């Protein structure tokens, strides 16, 4: 043990760390947290740090796996309770996480997401072992409902002795500081980002004979899929050339299937199902407008990816979203069907006039 600590001290003294990213949410599960952890880990590896990731087993994906640049992932045999999150009792995770920390001679434990029970457990175990701890909060929580009250109490305990906390927006920072009773001085705001070389426009891939609205999201209540179910039939009735391209999977898919069936929109509403991250750009470049109907967001990576691919963004004005994009790239709306339809009408009219101008220019080049 003394030899391991001396090795960790030498690593810290050289400016290079051995970092363990911990979260219930990682590949093959898809989402913003998963992508963030992977990209951050790759950047740290590129800078010369040693990075390993600890998450729970996903189906038959258990044990140790290796990703790009030798990124090592531990898929631990922990029982999933709800929505890919494990139960938080600390005791069952102690031997597994402690084994990873000791075996890899970890110097910094970086936990992600308030929703992740593994993240809370890892912070607790790391503090008992004298390791440096960092926590990144990716979500916003309320203060009144039972779920939020319980999570906020857990967060207060988890973060009471954490060395530093990172939030993805100033709205998220304010929310986290209030929920956990933190000193704002130990909380930093580092906005999320995308690699623009991976999300480049390609006008040749889209069909300009119609207006395509792209939605890429988990199909869950928090993402406002019920709002989307109200928007689709109203706008499709007004605009015969409008169609929707929807990527993502979740329990609210049934809402969209019912709308498509009821209004006979099978040729205008395509449900692509779950997408691999590498396929997201190929879907985005087929559209003219990116629509986000979230009811709560700390940041929203999807609208950045959509804007990077050249789409005009229409989004609900919730959480940290107003901080993300400049006004000329996004139309912000209240989280209601009426407000979102009005916002989309404005952008659709703008797109129609632009496409008409392009057609006219093509017919009369001189």
From TrEMBL:
Return the protein name: phosphatidylinositol N-acetylglucosaminyltransferase
Q: What is any one of the record's Gene Ontology cellular component terms?
A: glycosylphosphatidylinositol-N-acetylglucosaminyltransferase (GPI-GnT) complex
One matching Pfam family, short form? Glycos_transf_1
Q: Which UniProt key words apply to this protein? A: Glycosyltransferase, GPI-anchor biosynthesis, Transferase
UniProt xrefs under Gene3D superfamilies: Glycogen Phosphorylase B
Organism of this sequence: Denticeps clupeoides (denticle herring)
GO molecular function term, any single one: phosphatidylinositol N-acetylglucosaminyltransferase activity
A GO biological-process term: GPI anchor biosynthetic process
Coiled-coil segments on the chain, per record = none
Q: What is the enzyme's class at the highest EC level?
A: transferase
Q: Where would I find the PIGA GPI anchor biosynthesis domain in this sequence?
A: 56-145
> What EC number(s) is this enzyme filed under?
2.4.1.198
